[in-house]
Automatic annotation (TrEMBL), chains A, B:
Domain Transcription regulator PadR N-terminal: 16-86
UniProt source species: Candidatus Solincola sediminis
TM region positions: none
InterPro entries, alphabetized: Metal_resp_DNA-bind_regulator (IPR052509), Tscrpt_reg_PadR_N (IPR005149), WH-like_DNA-bd_sf (IPR036388), WH_DNA-bd_sf (IPR036390)
Pfam families tied to this protein: PadR
Descriptive protein name: PadR family transcriptional regulator
Domain of life, per lineage: Bacteria
Length: 102, 102
DNA sequence: TAGGCTAATATCGCTTAGCGATATCAGGAT
DNA sequence: ATCCTGATATCGCTAAGCGATATTAGCCTA
C-alpha cells in the first residue's frame, strides 16, 4: 500500500466515527466529506469499511429511500464513541510529540 | 485486525518518522518508546515495517555493533520528512475537526 | 577456542484489509 | 416494461499485520 494511504486510513476511520457520532451519515455523504478533507477513498474501500465497523459494533445502520435513492445511514454506537474518545486522546498525544517548537 | 490497532498503526508510523528525524533510532529503542506512548507493537510488525519504510525511501539504515549487540539505526530521509510534514498537517486538521467544543 | 548465553533482528504461515474494476440494485422517468 | 442514474455491494488480487519461532553476532566462561 502507498504510505500516504497507509498513514492516514486510521485518520479516515476516526473521521467516520466522529461524523456518525454527530449525525446520521451515508456512504456518499462521507465520500464527499472525506474528499473535502483531502482523503480520496474509493467505494471499494469505503463500503466494506462501513460494514466492517458495523459488524464490529462501532456503527449501526438504517437503510431508507431518499430523493429516489436507496441510502444507508450510519450512527456511532456507545462502543464507537468510546473508541473515538481514545482516538482524540491519542491524536493529541501524537501532536504534542511530533510538534516542532522552533 | 482489531480496530484499536487499525486506527493507530498510522500514528505509530508517524511516530517512527518523527523520532528518526530527530536522531538515529534502532528497532529496540523504538519498541520501548512506542510502548511508552501506549502502542504495543510486536517485533513481527515493527521490523518488517522498518524495512518497508526503508525500501520505500522514507528511512535509511546503518548497522553497527554497540555494547556487544548488533543494532540497526534508522534516520528519516528528505522524502520521509516531507511525509512527516504532511502528517503533521493532517493530524492538526483531524484534531480541529473532531474536537469537542462544549 | 568451542560452547553456550543473550539481546537484536528476521522470517514463516496464516488471516484479513485495501482497492480498482465491475456488478447489482432501487426508484423515477418516458 | 425499459432505460437511466446514483448508491451500495462484490470480486479477485496483492500485500499488510502479527504471533511464534528462528537466526544472528558478539560476549563470556573455562
Amino acid at each position: 500500500m502507498k504510505l500516504q494511504r497507509d498513514l492516514f486510513l486510521g485518520f479516515v476511520k476516526i473521521h467516520i466515527l466522529y461524523h456518525a457520532s454527530q449525525e446520521e451519515v451515508s456512504g456518499v455523504w462521507l465520500s464527499t466529506e472525506l474528499k473535502r478533507h483531502g482523503y480520496a477513498i474509493s467505494p471499494g474501500t469505503l463500503y466494506p469499511t462501513l460494514r466492517k465497523l458495523e459488524k464490529d459494533s462501532y456503527l449501526t445502520s438504517s437503510g431508507r429511500v431518499e430523493q429516489g435513492h436507496r441510502r444507508i445511514y450510519y450512527r456511532t454506537t456507545a462502543r464507537g464513541k468510546k473508541a473515538l474518545e481514545k482516538a482524540r486522546h491519542q491524536a493529541h498525544e501524537l501532536i504534542d510529540e511530533i510538534e516542532e517548537w522552533e
